[in-house]
Amino acid sequence: MKIFNLRTQVNEILTNSLILFPFILIFLSEILLPIVPMVSSVFKVGAVLYMFLFAIISLKFHASFLILLGLFIPLFIYGILHSFNIYAAISEGIRYLFPISVLMYGYAIRRHFKFLLMAFIVFVIINDLWQIVNYVNWYRGVTQWFYNTDIYGNRYFNASSGIIRATGIVGFFGLFGFINLIAFFLTRRYYTGKWKTLLLSSFLISLFLSFSYKTIGALLVLLFLQYKNKLKFFQIVGILFVIALIAIPKVVASMGESIILRLEQYVTEGDSARAESYRVMFAEISNFNLFGRGVGSFGGPASVTYNSPIYSEHHFNWFYTIDLTTTDTFFPHLFVEMGLIGGLLYLLVLLAPLTLSWKRDKFKLVFAVYFALFFDALFSYSLNNIAFLIVSIGFLYPLYFYREEEPILTEDVYNPIDS
Fold this sequence. Notes:
Blueprint: H1 2-32, H2 37-58, H3 63-81, H4 86-108, H5 113-140, E1 148-149, E2 155-156, E3 159-160, E4 163-164, H6 173-190, H7 196-209, H8 213-226, H9 230-247, H10 249-268, H11 273-286, H12 301-305, H13 310-313, H14 330-350, H15 360-377, H16 386-390, H17 396-401
Antiparallel strand pairs: 1-2, 3-4
Helix pairs in contact: 1-2, 2-4, 3-4, 3-14, 5-6, 6-7, 6-15, 8-15, 9-10, 11-14
Transmembrane segments: 12-29, 35-56, 63-81, 87-108, 115-133, 163-186, 198-227, 233-253, 334-356
Organism: Aequorivita aurantiaca
Protein name: O-antigen ligase domain-containing protein
């Protein structure tokens, strides 16, 4: 009997290790990105290959996903062959495979939601606690591993409102805010232990300390949509705003200025590379760009490295960001490179899990995941960032197949944030 139990435990540890392996590779690549970018890229590609191999060996696939993928692949091959530079096409084409690999892997590990959730929550907690170390080092003036380097070789860090943006151990404030957002909604739905309120508060505070305005905006919109009592929602937000205005007036004022500046750059004035990328996208659509200008031709790092002609053709203005390697906007990148038909088909592949028969409560969580990811992609490359993808759409199939009669924890405690 003891031998049987030991064998079962060993098998379980081995299975869990195999499941977590690509997660470990991906987040190690994020940590190594500012230090050794080449090694970071190898880890990412290794994780993608592992997920594809794991999914193929499992021999289990979502039929609707395969049908949509089959429709997209011919257009994808055409996009690679049609590109202005085959090396740019191959380099950027790999990134198109990231979400596909994550969805295939998510289906292969669809029976392991409980383990994935617990491992993810622990990982986010470690990040939130490590941020204390980051703050101490920042206050002491210590140069930290995740600091950026400008074109003159000087080290600098991302800050907002006079405060360093929270990054945890993942090293990027956008990803740090995003994992806390996903952890908040997963915990809010599935964790009923006595630490629930503390965990939710920690995730919210950490999210705001990232000063990732798109993630904060996504949070507020999602909470507004999910709150049954809309008036109560505005009352709570108003009270929190007044408290913040009294406690940290300079920070609130600085955040307000940052929001206004971003609205000017991206919407009213349009004097940013991001706004320019949308101008190019709408121009290409109006010119009936149905099948794209070719993979690697616009928006991504390959288009800059190999000097794509589209930038000069559209008189693209980088404004004061000439050192950028990307336009940092996913949808213009997608629709210019793949065209209207190719771009829409690609998005349908990513949305394939929605073709399943979701229960209402689970669908609310799925909507939150997709909304957060797609909203972030309006201003970033989150839809081909493997770290963003694996902690968002990577959970969808396991979430669908998770049986509600198997609670994460049975102890239920009243939580005012859930009201």
